[in-house]
Amino acid sequence: MKQGKLAAGQAGADDVAFWTRPERKPLPRPPKPYRAQTTAERDADELFGGFPTDVIADAMGVDLTTARRWRRGATPIPPIARRLAQVMLHGDLGAIHAGWKDWYLKRDGMLVGPDGWAFRAGEILSLPLLQQCNRGLEQTIERLRRVEIQADWVSGQYVEPRPAAQECACDDD
């Protein structure tokens, strides 16, 4: 074997670089032809919005294929599932009962009223206690007023409260 030549099966670095082809990039896919959405697809888009199909399936308690069928409009969404989706995905409590119209549950568990006030579950559970405390304070204030009136009566400083002035609704022609 001569020094300038390579043995069979051996290639030099220049030979490999010369024979390798440049990497080919795949051609972009042509755009899909426009197809108008069906009513069922529009309804599903409106109801499910941008939620992923796995989130929809988990929230609704259905199989992933069912959620996919609902999303693409292949299967109609049952009315009870629509209501459940309104509550589970959007937090709209008006879907349960008309009395809860404009009330929402946020993802962090906060209950938001129509006026924008937000409450945690613990705050709502404490409302009966707060009402009971409020009634007790009102009763205490009323007792203190009676004691004050009695003290003024005993000391001779009691003044009979004047009735509020009544306006006459008659015509003065």
3D structure, described in words:
- With 173 residues, the chain is mainly α.
- Among the domains are: 38-115, 434 Repressor (Amino-terminal Domain), CATH 1.10.260; 120-155.
- It is 46% helix and 3% strand.
- A 3-stranded antiparallel β-sheet has the order 1-2-3.
- A hairpin with a 5-residue loop joins strand 2 (111-112) and strand 3.
- Helix 3 (53-60) crosses helix 4.
- The radius of gyration is 39 Å and the shape is elongated.
- 5% of the residues are buried.
Question: How would a textbook summarize the main sheet?
Answer: 3 strands, antiparallel
- State which percent range the strand residues make up: under 5%
Low-pLDDT segments: none
Query: How many strand elements?
Result: 3
* Average pLDDT number: 79
Number of helices: 7
- What global shape is seen? elongated
Largest sheet, spatial ordering of strands: 1-2-3
**CATH topology tier name of the domain at 38-115:** 434 Repressor (Amino-terminal Domain)
Provide the structure class. mainly alpha
Distance between the termini: 138 Å
Gyration radius over CA:
39 Å
Percent range for helical residues?
40-55%
Please tag this protein with its features:
about 170 residues; mainly alpha; 434 Repressor (Amino-terminal Domain); three-stranded antiparallel sheet; 7 helices; about 5% strand; elongated
Secondary structure elements and pairings:
Elements (H helix, E strand, L loop, with lengths): L12 H7 L19 H10 L4 H8 L3 H9 L6 H12 L13 E2 L5 E2 L5 E2 L1 H5 L1 H29 L18
Antiparallel strand pairs: 1-2, 2-3
Helix pairs in contact: 3-4
